[in-house]
């Protein structure tokens, strides 16, 4: 076709070749063998049974197949589609919306460095750059030993503990360049450090199964909960007798 001045205009049809949001990875399984399918169907039946409308089980089922492959594959998407009687387009539309669903093979530990505004100002950018050099990988790349996948995160929703690093979605608060290096070294050596908040770390595939609703065997010693930094505003309000204004008609 031609433009308004008669010059040729070239239109690329379809996604650009560098588009990261496509579930197309060389070597990814296209379908599961019978023994894998049978095993996953047992878990899927348990998950689906929790919902009055079975299509509501799509999010946990996506975590389930991610726990099988470490990322979403054509085989995993096909499995979810068949179990829930959804079209491939319906499954892919949901899967491509959420960043917790991975588009490529993921290491044992997904290390996410927050580089959003507050964490960046407090040192997140420096931490991310240091880890890229230390690990020898770029964003969304995995170390040669398959242990660590490094990723920058837009926000970990923990600004009160900035800068924050998450490993398999567990928090490591108030990080520095040096502590972040020590953290990834502990992951690669097989002696992972304990999160600042939350349960002990497990491998990414097991984390995905836990998010799918499968049993979490990690010890619960009362970790987590709101810390002093999170509750600082509430404490000041209480000390000064401050209360939220009443809504309409005293509500």
TrEMBL record:
Keywords: 2Fe-2S, Iron, Iron-sulfur, Metal-binding, NAD, Oxidoreductase, Quinone, Translocase. It comes from the Bacteria. Residues 228-237 have a biased composition (Low complexity). GO terms for molecular function: 2 iron, 2 sulfur cluster binding; metal ion binding; NADH dehydrogenase activity; quinone binding. Its cofactor is [2Fe-2S] cluster. Residues 216-251 are annotated as: Disordered. Pfam families: 2Fe-2S_thioredx (PF01257). [2Fe-2S] cluster binds at residues 114, 119, 155, 159. It catalyses: a quinone + NADH + 5 H(+)(in) = a quinol + NAD(+) + 4 H(+)(out). Binds 1 [2Fe-2S] cluster. Belongs to the complex I 24 kDa subunit family. NDH-1 shuttles electrons from NADH, via FMN and iron-sulfur (Fe-S) centers, to quinones in the respiratory chain. The immediate electron acceptor for the enzyme in this species is believed to be menaquinone. Couples the redox reaction to proton translocation (for every two electrons transferred, four hydrogen ions are translocated across the cytoplasmic membrane), and thus conserves the redox energy in a proton gradient. This is NADH-quinone oxidoreductase subunit E. It comes from Mycobacterium simulans.
